[in-house]
Design brief:
Elements lengths: L5 H16 L3 H12 L9 H14 L3 E5 L5 H10 L4 E6 L2 H13 L6 E5 L2 H4 L11 E4 L6 H10 L6 E5 L15 H15 L3 E10 L2 E10 L1
Bound molecules: 3,4-dihydroxybenzoic acid (DHB) and magnesium ion.
The site of magnesium ion has 4 residues, from loops.
């Protein structure tokens, strides 16, 4: 039997990506552009991008909010999911990242259905109040602010809104209550909120793969 090593997680993820996601020139071009621009390679893995796309389609989401666009890789997956009549609002704090994301979305043919809002999410989110509720919110930004983002996701959503929160595993550090890394503390705070705040019903899945040991939480606004 194969050993449960990071190398084998990676090989298995590559096999799953090849088998179930396949060759995708638009997404590969987006990744290449993102790398060329010097963005960190912390975007979601292909199988996770496709998971986002499937959750959007399974839930019938037409209005999607993303917190943390980076270079737009996950945004492309979300924008494909909402279809031609849908729209994605994606918040990105770094103007340089937002420019890469904009170019990638346009090149992928989904630019017209995505609005990128440049700024700190904590400042942009209140400006979204008063619009129609979002059907799905993908949170993938600074982990220190997870509780702020979850609160806004509930406020800008409705009963039935789906929330996906990235990076809940943090290489296992998330299980360590004594860990003082602000990203770990923020991740734990977010999970505590998902488990105790009556607005949410949630679970989480650990993942191993291309990105190592991590995971994703999935919640319903009730
Ligand atoms: C980090 C952030 C992410 O969203 C991710 O998927 C992986 C790592 C980080 O900031 O370290
Ligand atoms: Mg992430």
């Amino acid at each position: 039997m194969a050993e449960p090593t990071p190398q084998n997680w990676r090989l298995t993820d590559e096999y799953l990506s090849e088998t179930l996601v396949g060759h995708d020139p638009q997404l590969e071009a987006a990744l290449a552009a993102q790398r060329a621009a010097g963005l960190p390679d912390i975007e979601v893995a292909p199988v996770s991008g496709k998971l986002l796309n499937l959750i959007v389609r399974m839930s019938g989401a037409r209005r999607v909010l993303e917190i943390g666009a980076l270079g737009g890789y996950s945004t492309i997956w979300l924008a494909r999911g909402v279809g031609e009549g849908g729209n994605v609002t994606s918040i990105e704090a770094e103007p340089d990242n937002a420019a890469v994301a904009r170019a990638n979305l346009d090149a992928a043919g989904v630019g017209a259905r995505v609005a990128i809002r440049i700024g700190r999410a904590a400042e942009v989110l209140p400006t979204l109040e008063g619009s129609d509720p979002f059907d799905l919110v993908f949170i993938d930004a600074d982990k220190e602010s997870n509780t702020v983002y979850l609160d806004w996701a509930a406020r800008l959503g409705r009963p039935g809104t789906v929330i996906v929160l990235d990076n809940i595993g943090r290489t296992g550090d998330v299980a360590d209550a004594d860990n003082t890394d602000p990203m770990v503390v923020g991740t734990r705070e977010g999970l505590r909120m998902l488990g105790s705040d009556p607005r949410f019903d949630a679970t989480a899945l650990q993942t191993v793969g291309l990105k190592g040991w991590d995971g994703v939480a999935i919640a319903l606004v009730v």
